[in-house]
Fold this protein.
Amino acid sequence: MSLEEILSLFNNTKNTRSQLIISGPCSAESEQQMLQTATELVELKKIHIFRAGIWKPRTLPGKFEGVGMIGLKWLQKVKQIYNLPVATEVASANHVYQALKHGIDFLWIGARTTSTPFGVQEIADALKGTDTPVLIKNPISPDIDLWIGAIERIKNAGITKVGVIHRGFSTWEKTKYRNYPHWQIVIELKRRFPEMLIICDPSHITGNKNYIPEIAQKSVDLNYGGLMIEAHHDPENALSDKEQQLTPAELNKLIDNLNISTKDFKNIPINSEIEQIRTEIDILDDMLIELLAKRMSLSHKIGELKKNNQLSILQITRWNEILNTRQKKAQFHNLNANFVENIFNEIHRESINIQSNIIKTTDHNF
Ligand code: PEP
Ligand code: MN
């Protein structure tokens, strides 16, 4: 894909089958690491933009914070040797000036910066008068307005090629993934900006290379326009995010195994809509199951407490309160009251089963 072809993917309402592939290490570490990784990635003939973080915003102090300016020279070298567009993260006006001075083709704004309107505005001001393509990662918190605010600040600075990167959202509770995807936020963003280039970053969503394929496939199914996947020639010795970086060979396999062909089917408009809705239903059903699992683990906890304090399982006033409040809420959302009552009866039945099993397991320590 030429640079012009890549740029034509921004502001595009057509359903294209091609996936824009951005890959490279989490961080630039040394000239040797950058050139070795780039050589192996370029050999795949599958990547369109080479990425590397120069300035690394780390949540906790004391971790590797990036090599700084020298890394821009290495990116420049990759660009010259391989004639490949390059991208890096910027978090301040100075980063923007330095990156542009070194001919970096694409800039991205990291999740922590998107969360800070002052930071985004400073970057927007520094970009005025250029038409550098910018990719905006979602903010750390699941707040669509913060994300849209950042998009608008960059667009208001006169940047016409603005895309987004979905990298998942922080959660208090540990889940399977490092960052929870909240797909529905991206679906809503796509509804509001149908022409926006949307890239998925399964590396930062999963935090674990074994889960990258399933998230990458889901993003393809949801018609995202591309993938940003971290790759390193020697992930085990990477200075940041080593659990989630793929080797170029692993990236090759992942891309080959992506099922992109379903997009042919999606070109028929009615099927395309049905497919889209089915994918959304699958996502919501997954969430329902996760929520039920959480709900039942709380029943387990409360069962233990009731056992230790010799309380009876069924507390009828509490049960009435549950039914009433849930039915009111259901009405508010135009849900059939019987349907909701049936569901809660089943949930309650299962909760009681769980609690009775706990109470039955008495200790036999005389
Ligand atoms: C990155 O892409 O290396 C990065 C730091 O990402 P994020 O801002 O999504 O954490
Ligand atoms: Mn990273």
